[in-house]
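Standup notes
- HV: blocked on the assembly model, inputs below
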Amino acid sequence: MNFVIEQWRAWAPGLDSDEAWQAWSRHPVRVPDDDARPACDFLPAMQRRRLSRLARMTLHVAWPLCAEDEQLPFVFASRHGETPRTYALLSEVADQQPLSPTQFGLSVHNAIAGQWSILRGQRGESVAIAGEADTFEHAMVEAAALLSEGAPAVLVVIAEEYPPEPYREWIDDVPFSYALALRVRGIDADHGMQTGERWQLRLEPDDHHHDAASECPHALQFVRAMHEKHGTLDHSWKARRWIWQRIP
Amino acid sequence: MNALQQEIAQLIIDTLNLEDVTVADIPPDQPLFGEGLGLDSVDALELALALQKRYDIRIASDSKDARQHFTTVATLAAFVQAQQEACKN
């Protein structure tokens, strides 16, 4: 699979500018997750009322990557989804309390893709996926499929939320909340005119069978590679070895 | 605006997560749904749940009057008051 990353934008608590991500890429640390959330004040307050933290993170990174009058297929990828919402709802069930209709209604994996569609008037295709520790790469496979069906460009968002305390023993690949949006295109024959960074992604079988998540999520390793101008990235998960390679 | 009306206006703001809206922005006679504050049917369900929890009242979901009770802060306050008095008796 060959792509051009035309534009991209990332967010994490305290990391909300190119400079901040550049500095983080040089010294990647586990940033404290203080429950900070993007303001999303490009939306009127009445339209923000049902946006969860993960929805705000998603809209914040995706918003400027789609033009006002543009229709783009949308891939939303999250391995764990909105764990704080899930935990809150299950706690209500355990306490035999009635569930909030709003919270219940939004507790599906494609809710954020739906909110994106409504708020941006997007009438095209959207996909919501959850995979394993290589959910990021699977999102790129979805994007490649949409591109091969003729989409001029695809908007991909990968977003994860720092889990509530009771889940932390089980979720070992979300050191802090983060969201990454990529505006992805196929490579034109005459790519001299195309702006953006060209990458190839390929999948090889891996005999070593890694099943411990790497300390830094794949999407954030990709952010590092973009900033640090790395030429290759090697992400292994179970029997899958994903190889990212810059195309000169 | 009486105390109960103010309380209900604040409950609407807190329950429905209305950023930048204050009690003063919801006059007792302003329609809550559609034109006016701009709430929708999901908000109505959410608000019904919050009112039942806060005031320990019951709102029958098939009640034909429900739409009327939910028109404004003033009609909601009157409804809550009537329910509470009915419970006392």
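- HV (later): unblocked. The mean pLDDT of chain B is 91. Chain B touches chain A through 14 residues (CB under 8 Å).
- Next: hand off to the docking folks.
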